[in-house]
Amino acid sequence: MIDVQSCQTCGQLQYPRRDVCRNCLSDDLVDSAVVDTGTILAVSTLWRSNEPRFASKLPLYIAKADLDCGIHVICFAAADMKAGDKVRVSGKLDETGQKIWIAHSL
Amino acid sequence: MTSVQDFAGVAVAVPVTVPYSRFSDRAAPWWIGSALRELLKRSGLRKEEIDGLAATSFTMGNDTTVALTEHFDMSPRWIEWLPTGGASGVMALRRAARAIQSGDANVVACIAGDTANPESFSKLVANFSRFSDEAARPYGAPGPNGIFALITANYMQRFGATRADFGAIAVAQRANAQGNANALLGSKPLDLDGYLAAPPIAEPLHLFDCVMPCAGAEAFLVMSQEKAASLGLPHAIIKGAIERHNAFFSDPVATRGGWLQDRDQLYAQAGLGPNEVDCVQVYDDYPVIVAMQLEDLGFCDKGEAPQLLRSRSLRVDGDLPVNTCGGQLSCGQAGAAGGFLPVVEALRQITGQTLGHRVADAHIALASGYGMVVHDRCLATGAVILEGAGR
C-alpha cells in the first residue's frame, strides 16, 4: 500500500498534493493508504540533468505510471521496463527529504 | 453558450524581431525596450501614442509590465502581463484586440523578450512551479526534456510514430530556416541521417528534438484597422481566435491539447477550414507537439500525424508549409519570445515582411501556442487565424 492524499468529503485521490480537493474544493484532506499497483505508460532514459546532484547517476530511467487507484505519477523505473508492464510502486524519501516514487516489476 | 463576438475592425501590424543571441549580457528590459524602439521606428508612432502595453518575460525577476512602464517612461491606460510562455503570443493578441474594440486602448504594443546566460535557464527550470518541484524535478531534474520524452514515448507507442517521423519535422524546419538571418541554426544544414545520429538527451528525444535556449525578443502592434490604414501599415485582420487552459486534465499522458476542444469554434468564427490556411505556425518546443497541433487543429485526425508527415511537405514550398521561419527548433528558443514567434511569423508571411523565404501567395495563416509545464504537460493553449489585409 502507498499513502496518497485523499478527500474526506468526496473521496477524490490526488497527486501532486493540493491545499484543497481538486474535485469538490473541500479542505478536509488526509493521507490514505491505497493499493500500490499500476501500469507503465511510457519510459524515458535520461542522459542529461539540470542539477549536478544527478550527474554521477546518469543515465537515469524514469517512467509515467498509471496507478490502479486512479492517480498517475512520474517515477523512477528499471532499465528494462517498458510501456504496458505491470508494476508495484513504493515511496521513499530522497537525500533532500523529497518523497519519490519507485516502480518495481511484478 | 452565447456566441463569441468577432474581432471586426482590429488590425495586427509591424512584426518585429530583435535578432537572437545564444547568450547575452543584457537584461530582459534591453530586449523588450529594443523591440519597442523598433515598433516605433517602423510604425512612425511616438511613444506617447502607445497607450496599451502587453508584455511577457521569464527573466525579469518579480518585475512585470508595470515596471516596464517606468523603465520606458510610458503612461499607458491599459496593461497586461502574460506569464504563460508558449501561449503568450496568442493570448496577448486576443486581449489587445478586445482592448481596441472596447476603446480601452488605441494602440497596444505586444512584446515578449528574454535574456539568456548559462545561469538563467537552470534558475528558471529549478523553481518553475510547485507541482513540478514535487512531482517532476526529483526524477533526475530533467526539465521539460524529461516531460516531453514521456509524452513522445507514449505517442510513439500509441500511434506508431517513429523517430524518422519527428525527424521530418526537424529537417523541414531547418530547411525553412535557410535564408532567415535570425535563425541561430539556420546555416547548419540538417538531414534525416544527421537527425537520427544525434546524441540522446532524454530518450526517445535526441539533440535535434530539443530547442536551444537563447536571448531575443518578438513584438507586434494591435490597433484599429482605420488607424493601421491611416499609418499606411501592411496589416492583418483577426478571423478567429481561441484559448483553453488545463484541457483534458484526466488524460494520464497528454496526447491532445486544448485546441481540439475549441477548433470547431475557431474555424466557424473564421468562416473557413484548415484547407484554406496557406501556412501554419505552431509552437514547437518538441516535434511531438507540432504533430499534436496539426491533429488537434484539424489538419489530420488524431494519431494520423505520422501518415501526414510521410506524405506531405512542411517546407515553405511544400503542400503544407509549417513553421516557415524555422521555428524555435532552428531559430532558438528566446524564452517567452518563443511563444510570440508563431504569431509574428504568421503576420510576416501574410503581410509580405518575412525575414527568410515567403510562402507563395500567403494570405491566411494560422498561429498557435502552447505553454507552461507546471507538472507533466503544458496547460495553456490558444490559436488564431489571421488574414492579410491592404498592402
Please bin the fraction of helical residues of chain A. Answer: under 10%
What is the overall shape of chain A?
globular
Strand order of the largest sheet of chain A: 6-5-4-7-8
Low-confidence stretches of chain A: none
Into how many domains do the coordinates of chain B divide? Answer: 2
The CATH topology of the largest domain in chain B corresponds to Peroxisomal Thiolase, Chain A, domain 1
Order of strands, main sheet of chain B, comes to 3-2-4-7-1-8-11-10-9
- In the CATH hierarchy, the third-tier topology of the largest domain in chain A is known as OB fold (Dihydrolipoamide Acetyltransferase, E2P)
Strand content of chain A: over 45%
What do these coordinates show?
Chain A: Residues 5-29 form the ChsH2 rubredoxin-like zinc ribbon domain. Chain B: Keywords: Transferase. Chain B: InterPro entries: Thiolase, Thiolase-like, Thiolase_C_2. Chain B: This is Acetyl-CoA acetyltransferase. Chain B: Pfam families: Thiolase_C_1. Chain B: GO terms for molecular function: acetyl-CoA C-acyltransferase activity. The complex is a heterodimer of chains A (106) and B (391). With 106 residues, chain A is an all-beta fold. Chain A folds into two domains: 1-34; 35-106, OB fold (Dihydrolipoamide Acetyltransferase, E2P) (Beta Barrel), CATH 2.40.50. Chain A contains no helices and eight strands. Chain A has strands at residues 2-7, 13-14, 29-34, 37-46, 60-67, 72-76, 86-93, 99-105. A five-stranded antiparallel beta sheet of chain A has the order 6-5-4-7-8, with no helix packed on it. A three-stranded antiparallel beta sheet of chain A has the order 2-1-3, with no helix packed on it. Chain A is globular. In chain A, 30% of the residues are buried. The model of chain A has no long low-confidence stretch (mean pLDDT 97). Chain B is α/β, with parallel strands linked by helices and 391 residues long. Chain B has two domains: 10-119 and 215-230, Thiolase/Chalcone synthase (Peroxisomal Thiolase, Chain A, domain 1), CATH 3.40.47.10; 128-211 and 235-388, Thiolase/Chalcone synthase (Peroxisomal Thiolase, Chain A, domain 1). Chain B is built from 14 helices and eleven strands. Chain B has a nine-stranded mixed beta sheet, with helices on both faces. In chain B, helix 2 (65-71) links the parallel strand 2 (52-56) and strand 3 (78-81). In chain B, helix 3 crosses helix 14. Chains A and B meet through strand 4, strand 5 and strand 6 of A and helix 4, helix 5, helix 6 and strand 5 of B. Strand 4 (37-46) of chain A pairs antiparallel with strand 5 of chain B.
